[in-house]
Amino acid sequence: MNKSGFVALVGRPNVGKSTLLNRILGAKVAIVSPKPQTTRDRIAGIHTEARGQIVFLDSPGIHRPRRALNEFMVATAERIAGEADIVVHVVDDRRGGEEETLVRGIVSRAAAPRVLVVNKADRMGSDGAAARLAELMASGLYGRGFAVSATRGTGVAELVTFLFESLPEGPAFYPDEDLTDLPMRFIAKEVIREKLFRRLDAELPYSVAVAIEEYREEPEKALTRIRAEIVVERESQKGIVIGRGGSMLKAIGTEARLELEKETGERVYLELFVKVEKDWSRNETKLRRLGYE
User: Fold this and answer.
1) Alpha-carbon span 7 to 114, nearest angstrom
2) CB contact at 8 A, 15 and 39
3) Domain 184-289, CATH number (from 3.30.300.20, 3.40.50.2300, 3.40.50.300, 3.40.50.150)
4) What letter does residue 189 receive in the DSSP assignment?
5) What Cα–Cα distance (Å) separates residue 17 from each residue in 31, 111, 204, 216?
6) β-bridge partners, 89
7) What is the pTM of this model?
8) Given a cut of 50, is residue 213 above it in pLDDT?
9) What is the CATH topology of the domain spanning 3-166?
């Protein structure tokens, strides 16, 4: 019988959890950007092969919550760690700090077996990565450790093999062809948000949310119509997102549309609008309306 189970990917912001997930799947399921806290929701990536099926649960980066949105993200990460069959703690070459202490607390409370992954080994060099791995494994918190490079793929196959060996026997949870359990409506929201993160400077992306107001497939025309609201917290932010003469909004829309056409395999008609919701990231009612609950 094949192996199957759920594996949580947890860690501080920007350690490369989403990049690792995409590398394992050989496809882009989780959005990535150089900015921390890009992932806000639970992202499931489904890896199916002859050995069985692993459902990877990518989680938001764990950090000290300072507003309602951050509290939602940290609570989501802790819930994911508590639900998994195996918890994979992803770290990089950054040492210590408040965020890492928070992550270790969540990992230590998880009842599932714990695996350490030192990512960005290519940046540290083989000796540096091995030393970092040995240092952290000495804590006794983890049953096994790996040094990998998610961007280059080094060490990833060995990690996946160990996970299959460690998971229980059981049937697949999803059809073989599925890469995620997320609906296209959610993926559309994430693609638009990724383009915002990559285009906008400094802190502004953390004050931006995306709400899909309409997602309508028209099979007879091989067309998908998407209407999305980009929500910001202040009027000044609205002007930045729109850009001079609408240039920024147009660029974001074009990049998102092209990627969504690849995802759907058909033409996409994408409309973007910008709306001000004062202090939405600090208001639990507004967070729920935007899908964070």
Assistant:
1) 10
2) no
3) 3.30.300.20
4) H
5) 10, 21, 23, 31
6) 10, 116
7) 0.75
8) yes
9) Rossmann fold (3.40.50)
